[in-house]
Task: inverse folding
């Protein structure tokens, strides 16, 4: 006998699959109208949204959640405007569905094309920030997919009011409201059941901390697109413009240290180490960055703490930086190959050959020359918006935009061809 | 304590990962030289290959395997020439690695490109046919990947001699022989362990019957690209050129009934059913095709057996055909939507709007107008060669060629850009 939670979740997956046929066929115009209607309704219903969010906040305070958690949970007036604006931005993005990416002709006269199509049903599993509900729903809907959203249990009231607004907009457009559904269950069992609906759900995208992501990967029978962490490196080569290197490294570490594309380890060519590190270290120190250095780094910077083995694969997400001096390009590449999380690496150099070699040989989703690691972001790279970053190589590697929420099928125009 | 089998398999996965760094960086010229060297060595060592194959055949006969199984296992002189020629064909294919698929410029001057890169380590799990060893190794190697091959246990001697030939060619080119490895263990435990090496292996491709594929999917922690079965439909519309429809349906069913892209169900528009089925049925009957028809079909064809519910989702892989009369396009589309395996569907029509609608709405990896379903094949569609067909939508949907054995990373050219 199925439990009540099982029945609810299994049914959600089934109706999502049915609804996916409708949204897959929907015209760009109609999808955009729905998105704009949601954007308007968010503003019209902002008091109700804030009321429901207050319930979550009160409950979170009772449960004694940290102020950082409560901050993430809170929907301010500005949050609502920003969610609404986000949907306007998605409306402006080109619809990937139906695009023909390539066409070729076979010797027998068959014309073969690859046509972009939606993936089907996507499950998004995320933590407390409720704006993810609107962002994810908007992107999945524009790419012609049904979506099942499972946010943090502490944000359930907020997510349900947002879901109701989306449902209303879908219904007004004569589309099934099951195109976007929020799991109405706080129990974690709901997630485990969701991850087993491989007959109905085509893709799972977890968005959150490493713990959540590992839980999803371990329990999912459905393909998962994810990254665990970002241990991003900048290599300052001996031919680097050191002023540029300073600006890039400072930006990569300090501008927003708590995100996955922030630099965690800085590699410095030994020829410029003394010169570069003295000035750079000072700048970091003034910004409150703790430096954990290799032996040679500590000889140059008296205030650096000695790094231990655990520092090299660490994702600090904080004002802490591991620093290592390497003797050449090979040293930098082998350190990166050993410790990188395949997320983002950058070289600062003015040497053409080294730039080319770094771009080719570093096995990360985004590899940069003379630019900050902070640019690994769908918006910054020009994808318009992103639903996450993948460091696994199947289907998508790097920031995932609308196109990564689709796949391609082959379409073939014939005139009676048969195989001989 | 790891068992001996565990130690062997885990070590194979680790060394494959290390070797993948070398083959990923290898030039096209060198990869082609290795492939040509393998092609030559196959011919030079054909007596030895046949001797080793004889051991497998004797063992298979002792075990009482069916003559069909022994036929699949047998390496004839022609098989060796065909394996060798297959490698020459792979040499001629364009190397996907390093190709830049797109480049764009951001407002801040960053130039962003997507560059094709190898996936890393690929595991191929297949059944008795030993030529798969050479085909798969050739394609994976050309796409810059390491590969671990696990063929049928009854083909182990054959696969090991083929593997030795590949190793020799790799060594002669100063490349690590661990780029291509054959699992030297007959025990199925080896497969189970292989499927858990998610730290080292990036992708699993099973090639074989539905039982093997389900076993792999259920036991794998690594992403799997697969299709379970092909329940392919042809819809003969009322506007079809009936002579063309006859040729296409006959080809789709009879030319090679035992393969996944053969037609299993024929849908016929009611307006032309009587006319079309009378002639078509006769042609099928002469070719020994058993027809299992819906009620209306049985009224037209007295010799048709009544179809039961199990016939609609059936993959016969034999001279058996399910036939259903539908009243219109909607009837055909809803039957396909309910029973298709998302593999291959074709419409025969001379109506422009219906052709367009069928191509857009049918959710299968290959959708054709006025052509046989038998064209769902990497070679026939112009991919050059194929390593399998995927009916799951992530990463690849349809026949998978060299490009599907790669992924893309973002490369970014900057001039000191930082994020503000």
Result:
């Amino acid at each position: 006998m199925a439990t009540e939670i099982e029945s609810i979740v299994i049914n959600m997956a089934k109706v999502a699959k049915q609804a996916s046929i409708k949204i897959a066929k929907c015209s760009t115009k109609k999808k955009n109208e729905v998105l704009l209607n949601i954007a308007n309704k968010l503003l019209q219903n902002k008091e109700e949204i804030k009321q429901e969010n207050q319930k979550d906040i009160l409950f979170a305070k009772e449960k004694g959640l940290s102020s950082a958690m409560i901050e993430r949970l809170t929907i301010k007036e500005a949050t609502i405007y920003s969610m609404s604006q986000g949907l306007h931005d998605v409306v402006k993005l080109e619809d990937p569905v139906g695009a023909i990416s390539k066409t070729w002709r076979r010797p027998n006269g068959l014309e073969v094309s690859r046509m972009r199509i939606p993936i089907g049903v996507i499950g998004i599993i995320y933590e407390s920030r409720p704006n993810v509900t609107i962002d994810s729903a908007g992107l999945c809907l524009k790419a012609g997919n049904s979506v099942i959203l499972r946010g943090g249990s502490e944000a359930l009231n907020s997510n349900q009011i947002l879901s109701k607004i989306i449902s209303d907009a879908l219904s007004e457009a004569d589309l099934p409201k099951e195109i976007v559904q929020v799991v109405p269950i706080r129990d974690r069992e709901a997630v485990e059941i969701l991850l087993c609906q491989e007959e109905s759900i085509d893709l799972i995208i977890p968005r959150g901390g490493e713990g959540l992501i590992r839980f999803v990967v371990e329990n999912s029978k459905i393909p998962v697109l994810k990254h665990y962490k970002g241990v991003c490196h900048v290599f300052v080569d001996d031919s680097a413009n050191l002023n540029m290197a300073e600006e890039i490294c400072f930006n990569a570490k300090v501008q927003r240290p708590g995100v996955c594309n922030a630099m965690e380890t800085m590699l410095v060519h030994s020829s410029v180490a003394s010169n570069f590190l003295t000035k750079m270290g000072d700048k970091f120190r003034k910004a409150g960055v703790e430096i954990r250095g290799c032996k040679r780094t500590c000889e140059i910077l008296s205030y650096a703490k000695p790094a231990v083995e655990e520092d090299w694969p660490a994702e600090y997400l904080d004002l802490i930086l591991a620093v290592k001096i390497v003797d050449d390009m090979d040293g930098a590449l082998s350190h990166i190959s050993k410790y990188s999380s395949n997320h983002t690496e950058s070289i600062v150099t003015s040497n053409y050959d080294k730039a080319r070699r770094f771009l080719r040989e570093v096995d990360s989703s985004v590899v940069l020359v003379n630019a900050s690691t902070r640019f690994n972001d769908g918006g910054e790279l020009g994808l318009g918006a992103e639903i996450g970053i993948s460091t696994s190589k199947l289907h998508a590697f790097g920031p995932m935009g609308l196109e990564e929420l689709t796949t391609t099928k082959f379409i073939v125009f014939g005139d009676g061809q048969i195989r001989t």
